[in-house]
Amino acid sequence: MDFQLTEEHQMIQQAARDFALNECLPGVIERDEKMQFPREQVEKLADLGFLGMMVSPEYGGAGLDTASYVLAMEEISKVDASVSVCMSVNNSLVCFGLEAYGTEEQKRKYLVPLAQGRKDGTLYIGAFLLSEPEAGSDATSQRTTAEDMGDHYLLNGTKNWITNGGTASVYLVIAQTDPAKGHKGISVFIVEKSWPGVVVGGKENKLGIRASDTHSILFNDVKVPKENMIGEPGFGFRFAMKTLSGGRIGIASQALGIASGAYELSLRYSKERKAFGTEISNHQAIAFKLADMATRIEAARLLCLKAAFEKDQDKDYTESASMAKVFASETAMWTTVEAVQIHGGYGYVKEYHVERLMRDAKITQIYEGTSEVQRIVISRSILNK
Ligand code: CAA
Q: Cβ(368) to ligand 1 under 6 A?
């Protein structure tokens, strides 16, 4: 066993750190306040090759391993989780799903520009459309339908809380093609936003990751060519579950980054701020909080890297990904609350960043499977061994 990062991993980590500090930090508070999508930052992510990090170079990606992705996600999330969620969805929910299960034609047409983050010089990203007004954790109860019309499918329904919803050019849409078969009748389609009948709903006004672009998406008699189905009819639910396992490594790394960002700010502040005649880090009440933060963050990082390692080794990483996500997201929530506490009154105002990190942390316990869903996945896995 080796706990040392390779030279390449360290270079990627440094590149992500530089990107976060130089490109994301300026304006992060204003973008959060104004709910302004970080387009410029996401375009720069494309230039860095971070939108298709794990896609093979044959399909326009950077061909890096999942550990590199974890390291980059952590660094960017320390500073701006609205940028990192965009990166995570494009990498692990959209590009991964297409590369693993798409046809050669689908990969050439959609994966190549999605991995590069550009088409004809314009930003080109994707979104993953599973959740519905009445299907969140219970993902099998899909109401969106895709009716087989012979030469095409006719798509109707509503999807909710879609990250990148307004900016994405391509949607991977989960829909019922045979309701009588329950989850075995669910399929998955590649849908272009520009097609007639696709309607982007209003932008959600959220507690955290406010600059990220979250919308509902409506489909009104959208004609989807048959060749845009991924896999066979009925493959959609398994596709969603398989893809989400990788996505959960991305969100776990995002949570890890939010926690480490809050910890680093708290460490710095506690060595500067004085109370009762000494720096507050000299008070055990603060020092012990920092010790617990550092310990939990290290444990979260190891879980993320273990899940990444298993994915790269082609092992079953579903359980590890869920463990990483539930632990890292709970670490992010706890750490950011404590970070606000350490900062006192300063923590409650925007300039010190920790209140935003606290708001951003909450979503990591909800999206890509709530903490409760992760515990379902983990308990089923350990009980079935
Ligand atoms: N890999 C492959 N197949 C899997 C699987 C996996 N990881 N997990 C389940 N399946 C299969 C099962 O084997 C089963 O197949 P068979 O019927 O053929 O045996 C089938 O899928 C149904 O599985 P379950 O019986 O376990 O289904 P369930 O109804 O009990 O639900 C669940 C399981 C884990 C709760 C699942 O519904 C789930 O993960 N829900 C959460 C959904 C979610 O994460 N949503 C996030 C939205 S996307 C998002 O947030 C993106 C964004 O924009 C940031």
A: yes
DSSP symbols for 185-232: GEEEEEEETTSTTEEEEEEP--SSSTTS-EEEEEEEEEEEEGGGB-SS
Mean pLDDT of the 214-239 span: 98
Containing 274, the helix (H) or strand (E) segment is: strand 274-275
Q: Please give the helix or strand (H or E) that residue 236 lies within, else none.
A: helix 236-272
pLDDT band at 385 (very low <50, low <70, confident <90, very high): confident
| pTM for the whole structure | 0.97
Query: Which residue's alpha carbon is at the smallest distance from atom 20 of ligand 1?
Result: 238
Which run of H or E residues covers position 173? strand 170-176
245 ligand 1 Cβ < 6 A:
yes
CA torsion 311-313-314-315 (nearest 10°) is -80
Query: Is 279 in contact with 273 (CB distance < 8 Å)?
Result: yes
Q: What is the pLDDT of residue 68?
A: 98
- Decide: 19 in ligand 1 pocket, CB within 6 A: no
d(CA 345, CA 116): 43
For residue 245, the surrounding DSSP H or E stretch is helix 236-272
What CA–CA distance (Å, rounded) separates 311 from 300?
17
Check if 29 has its Cβ closer than 6 Å to any atom of ligand 1: no
Q: How many CB atoms lie within 10 A of CB 146?
A: 29
132 in contact with ligand 1, CB cutoff 6 A? no
> Which token pair is 260?
């480490």
List the one residue out of 82, 119, 84, 107 whose CA is nearest residue 193. 119
Instruction: Give the per-residue pLDDT at 2.
Output: 81
The answer to whether residues 178 and 185 touch, using CB atoms and an 8 Å cutoff, is yes
Which atom of ligand 1 approaches the CA of 238 most closely?
A: 3
User: Looking at the DSSP assignment, which residues form a beta bridge with residue 186?
Assistant: 176
What's the rounded Cα separation, in Å, for the pair 157 and 144? 4
Alpha-carbon distance values, 318 to 71, 300, 308, 321, 376 (Å)? 20, 16, 11, 5, 12
Among 77, 188, 238, residue to substitute to test ligand 1 (most atoms within 8 Å of Cβ): 238
Q: How many residues does the chain have?
A: 385
Does 368 qualify as catalytic in the annotation?
yes
